[in-house]
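Supplementary Note 3. Input sequence used for the single-chain structure prediction.
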Amino acid sequence: MACEILPAVKKAPCIVGIGAHDPSLNQEVFMDEMMTLGFSGVTNEPFAGIYGSEFAAQLESAGLGFSKEAEMIALAHSKDIFTFGWAFNPEEAGKMAEAGADVVGALVGVTVGGLSGAKDSLTLEKATDAVEAICQAAKGVNPDVIVLTHGGPFKDPQTAEYSILHSGAAGYAAGSSGERLPTEDAIIAVTKSYKNMKLEVDSK
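The predicted structure, written as discrete structure tokens, is reproduced below.
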């Protein structure tokens, strides 16, 4: 996708997600290739934590878990590449900060709402508390690290604003709430308008 995306982006920096868990991938060579293509930074996406703590722990015990993601961020940091490290909990946030992440993403789960059917057991308040715990862990290692909120009940400008105002986060990473949800809402509204058309047929 880089060959399609990078030529279309004129000013904004693009960050590449690198699957750190692939044992067949030479991380350093691949990272250098991505920078040559024109990327401005790297992030640990996909991430093992999205599968839940139990499966993530099994991946970690097999040597294919979060530690690989932290190692990848540390490698990028050593090469003076901008790094965005996603973390699902305070422990991961601390390790990302130790690895040298410039930004830590406080990930509180899949973004709720829309046609995906994703639901979240976390209230807005509890999700924001989780963000704050991640902030404290990351900033405890590096006070200068930037923390962004993402996921869970943070699905629109109002909930994103709440997560920032009530935590130490500096901003919000939109993800599907900036692309999937608005698109779905628009498609549903237009489709309903077609179904509600009142057509008058000329009998002549």
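The domain at 10-195 is CATH 3.20.20.70 (TIM Barrel). Residues 176-195 form the longest helix (20 residues).
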